[in-house]
Design goal:
By secondary structure, this protein is an alpha/beta fold. The protein has 12 helices and 14 strands. The structure holds nicotinamide-adenine-dinucleotide. Nicotinamide-adenine-dinucleotide binds next to helix 4.
């Protein structure tokens, strides 16, 4: 069971150490032998081998079952041309691994309700929504261009989807819903966009195979509103690339802190990529201040989706809750009356609780 760790830049190495610590503990608790490889990506790869995504990194990932990615980027590399910047490595690795579905849970632990932008009565006893965003199609990858016509400038980005692209991500979302509360909301703009009308008809067709899951459709403008009005109506959401990009950031902020948000990217290739959604946070790098919980929960997702170890994943969620219950907080989620600790200590406490 090969796992590749890609620490990256800034706080990347610090949070990766904590993620690895947790996988070690789970390995011994469940007598599972994880083997580890380390690989370069982002600024550190530019410094060491001259490109943000070395071929060796792709090869190592392709030979693995799961990849953990810390974070990449930093001011040092900001002036490089686009294709040589650290972030180009991120898009490159997702593409190389054929990852077409991005899973972004909006998980608000009840202990951290004060950090949310929503009112207490809207939050109830916490939030647990899974957003599935299509990752390799739509207008981010469609035909784009710019031209001058009769002295006026014109630009376009084409929103294009095939039925098979929609079907594969929809199936994945239905499977997830089946394992959760059994409810899927498909978000589109079918009142205006032809690509959304195709999206909706494919989702309807796939739903024939998932009669046990309730399906509803929602226009994206309404969905943006409903997420802040009554987020508890959602269980699993599936949507296209651009709507998912925007809605998952909106939903993420309902939980209050970037340091708590994990993600998984999956495809047909049997390799999963797991990463916190935050960046390399150069402002706090090397200060033992980064919150490692997003990375630690990303490991829980890895255990669930790549290794089918749901019980071990639950152990991690339970341990995180237990440590928060005892009042321990990193600086980003600190509240009066709590105990402030650093990255390493948070990792240690969660590992001990497991
Ligand atoms: P960022 O997510 O790195 O930081 C935004 C703010 O959140 C900062 O104040 C930071 O200190 C804080 N923060 C982030 N993660 C935290 C954590 N785990 N614990 C506590 N505080 C945390 O976003 P940015 O500052 O816009 O970007 C910094 C660099 O990261 C840029 O080079 C950007 O391109 C890159 N980036 C990388 C990824 C990625 O690797 N997936 C994602 C986003 C941004």
């Amino acid at each position: 069971m090969m796992v590749v760790f890609i620490p990256g830049d800034g706080i990347g190495p610090e949070i990766t150490n904590q993620a690895r610590k947790i996988l070690d503990v789970i390995g011994s608790k469940y007598s599972r032998k994880f083997q580890y490889e380390y690989a370069l990506l982002g600024g550190v790869a530019i410094d060491e081998v001259g490109v943000p995504l070395p071929q060796e990194t792709i090869d190592k990932c392709m030979a693995s079952k799961a990849v953990f990615l810390g974070a990449v980027g930093g001011h040092k590399w900001d002036d490089l041309p686009g294709h040589l910047r650290p972030e180009a490595g991120l898009l490159g690795i997702r593409k190389a691994l054929g990852l077409y579905a991005n899973l972004r849970p909006t998980l608000l632990f009840p202990q951290l309700k004060a950090a949310s932008t929503l009112k207490e009565e809207v939050l109830g006893d916490g939030l647990d929504i899974m957003i599935v965003r299509e990752l390799t199609g739509g207008m981010y990858f469609g035909d784009k261009g710019r031209e001058e016509v009769d002295g006026d400038e014109r630009a376009w980005d084409v929103e294009v989807y095939t039925a098979s692209e929609i079907e594969r991500v929809t199936r994945l979302a239905f499977e997830l819903a089946r394992d959760r509360e059994g409810h899927l909301t498909s978000i589109d703009k079918a009142n205006v966009l032809e690509s959304s009308r195709l999206w909706r008809s494919v989702v309807e067709k796939v739903s024939e195979d998932y009669k046990d899951v309730t399906l509803n459709h929602m226009y994206v403008d309404n969905a943006a509103m409903q997420l802040v009005r009554n987020p508890h109506q959602f269980d699993v959401i599936v949507t296209n690339n651009i709507f998912g990009d925007i809605l998952s950031d909106e939903a993420g902020m309902l939980t209050g802190s970037l340091g708590m948000l994990p993600s998984a990217s999956l495809g047909d290739g049997n390799i999963g990529l797991y990463e916190p959604i935050h960046g390399s946070a150069p402002d706090i790098a090397g200060k033992d201040m980064a919150n490692p919980i997003a990375s630690i929960i990303s490991i829980a997702m890895m255990l669930e989706y790549s290794f089918n170890m749901k019980e071990a994943a639950q152990d991690i969620y339970g341990a995180v809750k237990g440590v928060l219950d005892k009042g321990y907080r990193t600086a980003d989620i600190m509240e009066p009356g709590m105990i402030e600790i650093g990255t390493e200590k948070m990792g240690d406490l969660i590992a001990q609780a497991i």
